[in-house]
Write a sequence for this structure.
């Protein structure tokens, strides 16, 4: 069995160290919390360009001791070129509300543009997402407008294992001083592809910038599984490139 390159091994060591930190008690930082995100999904390739994704996610907070939210979601994306993919998505969320901690429904719509490039064994990517949140409250329907910018990198190991990392910045429109920075995320992880199955594990630091709800810094361990169906016709089917799904952490932006 081939050994992983030095770059991949160093990335795995960093991931393990950060995951242990996420698993540990968060009392060391007064305004921090540990979370666990579990996800499962189905990806259907309808054509060479068109892709349908559906899944569900469970999120725990309070050092894994409380359900924070649960939601199904669906998305459709179309590959314009080898560099550009456009997508739309919808999420129906049952989440814990402040200040009483009861669960309440919310919805989220988004459109995004994803760009990716390959330089030798390095995959670089950028995603611009426009997001509209709809929160159902006793006073009526509250809207939350968001712009998200994500940059990512992944490394082609010539094996089934792909290390990746990404950084994302949330910009909030309205609900405060006009245009403002809301929070940012740093993610590092690995993805294992055993067609038609894929597994991933990542560590994510979610750091608030704005002070709307005095949210803590979250240290998150994420575990995900995806099953892929290929509904394309055998004749004329474009051979699958190893880089087709290596969007350098874009699908882990959530």
């Amino acid at each position: 069995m081939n050994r992983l390159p030095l770059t991949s091994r160093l990335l795995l060591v960093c991931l393990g160290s950060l995951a242990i930190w996420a698993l540990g008690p968060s009392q060391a930082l007064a305004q921090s919390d540990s979370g666990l995100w579990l996800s499962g999904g189905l990806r259907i390739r309808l054509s060479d360009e068109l892709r349908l994704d559906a899944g569900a996610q469970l999120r725990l907070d309070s050092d894994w001791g409380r359900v924070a939210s649960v939601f199904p979601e669906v998305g459709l994306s179309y590959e314009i070129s080898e560099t550009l993919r456009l997508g739309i998505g919808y999420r129906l969320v049952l989440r814990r509300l402040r200040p009483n901690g009861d669960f309440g429904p919310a919805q989220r719509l988004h459109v995004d543009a994803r760009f990716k490039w390959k330089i030798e064994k390095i995959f670089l990517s950028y995603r611009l997402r426009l997001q509209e949140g709809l929160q159902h409250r006793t006073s009526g329907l509250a809207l939350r407008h968001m712009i998200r910018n994500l940059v990512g990198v992944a490394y082609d190991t010539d094996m089934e294992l792909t290390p990746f990392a990404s950084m994302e910045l949330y910009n909030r429109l309205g609900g405060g001083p006009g245009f403002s920075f809301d929070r940012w995320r740093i993610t590092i992880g690995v993805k294992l592809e055993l067609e038609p199955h894929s597994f991933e594990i990542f560590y994510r630091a979610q750091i608030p910038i704005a002070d709307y709800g005095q949210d803590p810094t979250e240290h998150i361990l994420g575990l995900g599984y995806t099953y892929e169906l290929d509904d394309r016709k055998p004749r004329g089917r474009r051979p699958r490139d190893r880089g087709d799904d290596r969007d350098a952490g874009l699908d882990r932006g959530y």
